[in-house]
């Protein structure tokens, strides 16, 4: 498994740069990851990220956009505003989770 150094932390990533070790992530690291893709984190961003982080251990995979909207209570339109263009991929990246199934 490849590793990379971000914000002085060595983390395990896949070939696309998504983190592969759940416990290596911190909110500080999430802020750095978000900045790398041009996102400045707000309370609304953190609501989505915290939902993904809490949902992952229960289901063993990254929640889809539909699940974040229906179970997480964040409308899809808002997710596209918070994480423009590819919200599911961007949320997973910032949350330190694998790319959601079905994302290209």
From TrEMBL:
GO BP of this protein: tRNA wobble position uridine thiolation
Gene Ontology molecular function: any one: sulfur carrier activity
Gene3D superfamilies: 3.30.1420.10, DsrC-like protein, C-terminal domain
Keywords for the protein's UniProt record, in alphabetical order: Cytoplasm
Subcellular compartments: Cytoplasm
Principal cellular location given in the protein's record: cytoplasm
GO terms under cellular component: cytoplasm
Transmembrane portions of the chain: none
Positions annotated as active site in the UniProt record: 103 (cysteine persulfide intermediate)
Pfam families noted in UniProt: DsrC
Protein family (similarity comment): Belongs to the DsrC/TusE family.
Name of the protein described by the UniProt record: TusE/DsrC/DsvC family sulfur relay protein
Source organism of the structure: Nocardioides euryhalodurans
Phylogenetic lineage: Bacteria, Bacillati, Actinomycetota, Actinomycetes, Propionibacteriales
């Amino acid at each position: 498994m490849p590793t990379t150094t971000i914000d002085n932390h060595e983390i395990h990533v896949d070939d696309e740069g998504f983190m592969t070790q759940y416990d290596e992530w911190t909110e500080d690291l999430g802020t750095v990851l978000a900045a790398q893709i041009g996102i400045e984190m707000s309370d609304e961003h953190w609501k989505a990220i915290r939902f993904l982080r809490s949902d992952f251990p229960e289901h063993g995979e990254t929640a889809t956009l539909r699940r974040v909207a229906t179970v997480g209570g964040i409308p899809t339109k808002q997710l596209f505003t918070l994480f423009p263009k590819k919200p599911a991929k961007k949320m997973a990246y910032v949350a330190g989770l694998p790319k959601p199934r079905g994302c290209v």
